[in-house]
Design brief:
It is a single chain. The chain has 241 residues and is an alpha/beta fold. The protein has one domain: Alpha-Beta Barrel (TIM Barrel), CATH 3.20.20. It contains twelve helices and seven strands. Strands 1-2-3-4-5-6-7 form a seven-stranded parallel sheet. The longest helix has 19 residues.
């Protein structure tokens, strides 16, 4: 919940300048709902995709305050973040609700960025794989391999979000590799290899290159460091091997 429409527009103008001409990387901006239309206009002609931070699972109806996938698609969104830890923590989203949103987003023509990750106490108790495995299973339940192949899964250890603490590159790789193994078991080799698995959690320009060098880290879901155009552009540049 950052940036007014004017602030978002200014960000896009600066970010486009700082990332112009870059190849070999996919960039996606996910501003608040209120700024989506203005940002879409400023992204016209740029090789930068637009995403939303959430959506609901119904196409329309008496659901005051919610946004349908089709509404996001109409204004130019290609991606939508689903199951972010803050949605789970503050708004009570369960794996079942995330699954309904994933299904709705796919039906609506959006690419879900499905977030999974463990709390600090769960990590310290040695339950990382149990928690992350349950979330992956729940979020993707009932999907076909062809649908899963086009998804993005983001591993975001909750204890590393906005805290300055970052999972080591080897720790992040271990969990991302575990996630790919789950996808391979559930949906087959082709789908598992096609899925992009991101890492998110205090990603900064200084740790991007090491994280992106890991075999099962295909990208970054960037939070606080993406609010500054200089910082985010440097993260993008450092992610290119």
């Amino acid at each position: 919940m950052y940036k007014t429409v004017a602030e978002a527009v200014n960000f896009v103008v600066a970010f486009r300048e700082k990332t112009a001409g870059l190849a070999g990387v996919e960039m996606v901006l996910c501003p608040p709902f209120t700024a989506l239309t203005a940002v879409a206009e400023k992204l016209s002609g740029a090789d930068i995709a637009l995403g939303a931070q959430n959506c609901y699972w119904e196409t329309e109806g008496a659901y005051t305050g919610e946004i349908a996938p089709g509404m996001l698609k109409e204004i130019g969104c290609r991606y939508v973040i689903l199951g972010h830890s803050e949605r789970r923590q503050f708004f009570g989203e369960t794996d079942a609700k995330v699954n309904k949103k994933v299904r709705a987003a796919l039906t609506g023509g959006l690419v879900p960025i499905v977030c999974v990750g463990e709390l600090l106490d769960e990590r310290e108790a040695g339950r990382t794989e149990e928690v992350v495995g349950r979330q992956v299973d729940g979020a993707l339940a009932g999907l076909q391999a062809s649908e899963v192949a086009g998804l993005v899964v983001a591993y975001e250890p909750v204890w590393a979000i906005g805290t300055g603490r970052t999972a080591s590159a080897s720790d992040a790789q271990a969990v991302n590799g575990y996630i790919r193994g789950i996808l391979r078991r559930l949906f087959g080799d082709d789908a598992a290899e096609a899925v992009r698995i991101q890492y998110g959690g205090s990603v900064k320009p200084g740790n991007t290159a090491e994280l992106m060098a890991q075999p099962d880290i295909d990208g970054a879901l960037v939070g606080g460091a993406s609010l500054d155009a200089d910082s985010f552009a440097q993260i993008v540049r450092n992610s290119i091997g």
